[in-house]
Structure formats: C-alpha cells, structure tokens
Amino acid sequence: MSGRIADWAKGEQAIVFQTCSACGHVQYFHRAFCAACGAGGPREARASGKGTVYATSLVCRAATPETRAHVPYNILLVDCAEGFRMMAHGENDLAIGDPVIASFRPFAGKLVPFFTKET
What we know:
This protein has no helices and eight strands. It is mainly beta and 119 residues long. The chain has two domains: 1-46, no CATH class; 50-117, CATH 2.40.50. The chain is globular, with a radius of gyration of 15 Å.
C-alpha cells in the first residue's frame, strides 16, 4: 500500500490503526487486507492515543540486558478509543479500568508508546 502513514514502529510518535472500507472492522496490526472479511486495502488513520487499561502486568525481572535498566516496568493491554486493543508500556501504578493517554518514551534503545493516567 503506497502512502502508508508512519507510526511508532518506524520511529514516528504516532499509533496507526486500520479500518475496513467494506465491513468497518477496526484492526491494529498493519495488514494488506481486513482480518474480519478479507477485503483489500483497509484505510489507515492515526489514533488519538486515548484508551482504557484492559490488563496490566508489572515486569520485575529483565528479559534481556537492554531491559535491565527499566525494571520494574509495566506492560499493558489498552482498549483504545477507536475500537482496537494494543499492548504497550505504561506507568507502574496503572490499574484495570484506568483512563489513559499515550505519549512516547525510549525503552531499550527504541521509542515506544507509553501510557499515563488521563486526568
């Protein structure tokens, strides 16, 4: 797909999702087709960064030497306002049901989405 919107995986401070033109399904991971109906060419858009914590897991043991400096760190599942769920980093004191908003922070040499409590 040409004209693809750059997102955090490409170093931009943006979360990009897709919506199917045929059935309206919303999906997070970039695909050339709709995961629900198979139609080609879903539309891409930038997410607002707003959502609600669905699940949280505090990591207290580094998986790699690069992540050791970040321990403890919180991994979240966030139900985003646009209708998709994503995994990301977040403040350590976040709980299920908390309203959150995304920013971007360095983690193990990469810029990643980082959610904080929305006030």
